[in-house]
Q: What sequence folds into this?
């Protein structure tokens, strides 16, 4: 049922942006951002349930909690980066959106280093 609400908000927001954009571009941008935030609020319960399920999986497998934390941060950075870049692209600031994406990719690479180190340690341990 939440999905139908999200689709409805997305469609209403899109039509509102298209209508208002003809008269006031600044209000159209604001409407788009507010609609996007409303959709994120509606999905927040499912996201928290998803994180709880992922944590349970990692607890059952006895994987180090720092790896869990890094993975969740990487996923979060990816989603927030894409969301922010898309807002910039929607407002016509494509070059800023591209820079946000680039910085997000660098942050994801940085956050993945502990996981890469753990994988290298496992591989070295298996080879010995």
A:
């Amino acid at each position: 049922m939440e999905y139908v609400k999200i689709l409805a908000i997305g469609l209403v927001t899109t039509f509102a942006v298209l209508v208002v954009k003809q008269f006031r571009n600044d209000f159209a941008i604001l409407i788009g951002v507010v609609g996007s935030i409303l959709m994120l609020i509606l999905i927040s319960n499912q996201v928290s349930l998803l994180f709880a399920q992922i944590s349970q999986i990692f607890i059952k497998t006895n994987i180090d909690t720092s790896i869990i934390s890094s993975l969740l941060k990487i996923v979060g950075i990816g989603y927030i980066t894409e969301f922010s870049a898309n807002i910039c692209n929607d407002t016509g600031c494509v070059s800023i959106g591209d820079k946000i994406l680039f910085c997000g990719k660098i942050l994801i690479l940085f956050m993945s280093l502990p996981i890469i180190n753990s994988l290298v340690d496992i591989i070295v341990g298996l080879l010995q």
About this structure: Residues 63-128 form one domain. The first helix runs from residue 2 to 21. DSSP finds four helices and no strands in the chain. The radius of gyration is 20 Å.
